[in-house]
Amino acid sequence: MKDLDAMLVTRRTIVAATPLAPLVTINAAPAEIPTLSPSQMRLLNAVIDRLIPADELGPGARECGVAVYIDRSLAGPLARETAAFTAALDATEIAARQQHGAPFADLDDAAKDKLLTAMEQNRVSGFTPDSRTFFNRIRQLALEGMFGDPFYGGNRAFAGWDLIRYPGPRLAAAPADQNIREPIKPLRTSAHGARHGD
Known about the structure:
The chain is mainly α. The chain has 8 helices and no strands. It has helices at residues 4-7, 11-17, 38-51, 66-75, 82-100, 109-120, 131-147, 159-164. It is elongated and about 60 Å long. The protein starts with a helix and ends in a 34-residue tail after the last helix.
């Protein structure tokens, strides 16, 4: 059996895997009307907080607004997934209550990690098609929200870009920007031209 630390996503494994993470392209403006209920948002924040926790390198998914990104995506381009996503959130909450006697958000970190690991290993029932599928989907959306354009609600204050040292989109690069020995000064703007988080 894999070690628990190896099963869960850590900040370091996310940084290593980020170039391989497919980021969804969203053309529409972010939706402002919440799709998820307050209790669902509380659960979602608790899950993503364990997937991408804050550490000595910076804030985690909760602080970076990843839940906002996911909620807006479900209200817009991922609207067809909303029913399945909310059903999987409900299944996560039911599993937490059955296995640990409390809502997921109220569990200690060790219990949360144990349940998420079981979901990733496809050992939790009540999910359609299965718990691993939902774990992988919520992990993918967490990566998108953490490292995507802040215009869509995540990556608050450019913390995700700072973590991977991405300076932001540029139409042109000056000679100084191409010097590999010097870090590129962050542009602090989204691809949509709006500045966020400063």
